[in-house]
């Protein structure tokens, strides 16, 4: 029996797979990872959370088969955490085989100060994605909290465009992650999943 090739409409109906590869030193970034997961899942995507400091061979395989990978880490000393850097270097095996070529990628980070050089962490993620030949998905939001009529509860209250940036007071636990930053991370998850679905449908249409 010959199985017909999938049409663009049938391929589009298959939920995209989004993997969130993250590290969290004190739990704050895990809160954001969960928010990204919820946002992506809201669109119907299949979502996997992968803690990069505990990654297994099975989870490496999940990353290899995902349509999109969202990178997440706290910002320590102006860049991603050491644990995330170890993971990033370990992805060189995937780089050598181009295993992640043309996947979608995005990123999020948290630090104790409003800026905290979080942009450098997001840039690190985007360069990592570029090394793998991935396509970067930005936050897709205007900056919030930038006028007298704006509010710290605005989406993208910290004004990052490359990815989702969050700020949590250093003397507060994971329950202190700002609600607007959680909502911004949820937005990122929805955006990545939606773009992954569009990308899959387009690829299927071209192949048809």
TrEMBL record:
PROSITE patterns: FLAVODOXIN_LIKE. InterPro entries: Flavodoxin/NO_synth, Flavoprotein-like_sf, FMN_Rdtase-like_dom. Pfam families: FMN_red. Residues 18-163 form the Flavodoxin-like domain. It comes from the Bacteria. This is FMN reductase.
